[in-house]
Design a protein that fits this description.
By secondary structure, the protein is of the alpha+beta class. Helix content is 42%, strand content 23%.
Length: 202
């Protein structure tokens, strides 16, 4: 349609159509990239582990989220009392933090709050993302990490339901885990646990 008549006869409509095509292509690209991440992860995680400050990664993800929400919701980083340094792939864990923040932003309304904390739990480093959003029904909570799964409350939100599945896969590739807790109408909390290396016995 654009080639045959819209570009010359209706430039404004052509411009709108091109924008719609670009947006659809972007969504398709993100979906394909997410599926490739899951497929590669099933076969070979390919993580590159180094010692990094988990708090610095969390703060960087928060700053990106603050720019994206543009004041619609409050995204606050609560600094730990001391650096929490652990072995992990920095890019992959930044991706997890971004996924958890994106998930929180999607399901919070204007004026709600999101808090990001980093702490230690015995032999693990912990990244926590909590929000005061719509929450997740108790019977659906165990399913949120399944591929393509979206809760009934998320039907109007954008996304293919792959983010949390990718986040869990990255966590497990590090020998860690992600836990979710929620109360309907009160908000949700997601925690990423990353283990410290086991100390050798003397």
């Amino acid at each position: 349609m654009l080639d045959e008549w819209a570009i010359d006869e209706d430039p404004d409509r052509a411009k709108r159509s091109a924008g719609a095509i670009r947006a659809a292509a972007g969504r398709m690209r993100n979906l394909i990239e997410s599926l490739l991440v899951l497929t590669r992860g099933d076969e070979n995680t390919g993580i590159q582990v180094g010692r990094h400050d988990l708090g610095a990664v969390a703060e960087e993800a928060v700053q990106a989220a603050q720019t994206a929400v543009d004041g619609r919701v409050s995204v606050e980083y609560v600094r730990p009392k001391r650096p929490v340094v652990a072995p992990f792939d920095r890019n992959r864990i930044f991706q997890v933090a971004s996924i958890l923040l994106d998930n929180a932003v999607k399901y919070t309304q204007q004026g709600d709050n999101i808090f990001v904390r980093v702490d230690e739990d015995e032999n693990r480093a912990v990244l926590e993302v909590s929000d005061t959003g719509i929450g997740i029904p108790e019977d659906q909570l165990p399913l949120v990490f399944e591929r393509f799964y979206r809760t009934d409350h998320s039907r109007t939100a954008a996304g293919a339901g792959l983010g949390l599945a990718i986040a869990r896969q990255i966590a497990e590739a590090h020998g860690g885990e992600i836990r979710a807790g929620s109360a309907l109408g009160e908000g949700s909390t997601f925690k990423l646990f990353l283990p410290y290396p086991t100390k050798p016995h003397r």
